[in-house]
């Protein structure tokens, strides 16, 4: 089995439900808005990596993994900016990400559990992004974007794996599994109640 499908299946095993079918209809009709929001998502993903390596500077594995992730996410951000330029668009203001805010509100406020929750929630967001990018790749007509989103879906799947592996490196594996189950249940409820906005996590 190709690596792409192996990684994608790992992400789907983590998620407890699929994206609302109505989202892709809205996304296709408002593709420029989705691409703009995607740029902001890549920028914030790089910010998450930077925050983790800054906060947990004494954890060598986190520092190294997040250094790689930040470099990759900034590359994705640059690519999306170039795509916007080809579309004749300029990146607009970040409208925020209510999905991510809602999920992150469940992160434990006290260490060391906060570190575990931050790694797990970052992994869940990457898994959902993987699913959304795959849906876009399967449904949009723009061939350049279709190819780009297929490649990025693979990348997001790899990031999910990285975050969960890091959590299991520093915490008991059974504890990580239990918390992953709890947080993906919360994430599933958030997804179920989204209003299908033309955003990557809308």
TrEMBL record:
Q: Which Pfam families match?
A: MiaE (PF06175)
Q: Which domain of life is it from?
A: Bacteria
User: What SUPFAM superfamilies has UniProt attached to this entry?
Assistant: Ferritin-like
Q: Where are the transmembrane segments?
A: none
**GO MF annotations for this entry?**
tRNA 2-(methylsulfanyl)-N(6)-isopentenyladenosine(37) hydroxylase activity
Gene3D superfamilies for this protein = 1.20.1260.10
Checking InterPro entries in the record gives: Ferritin-like, Ferritin-like_SF, tRNA-Hydrxlase_MiaE
Official protein name in the record: tRNA 2-methylthio-cis-ribozeatin biosynthesis protein
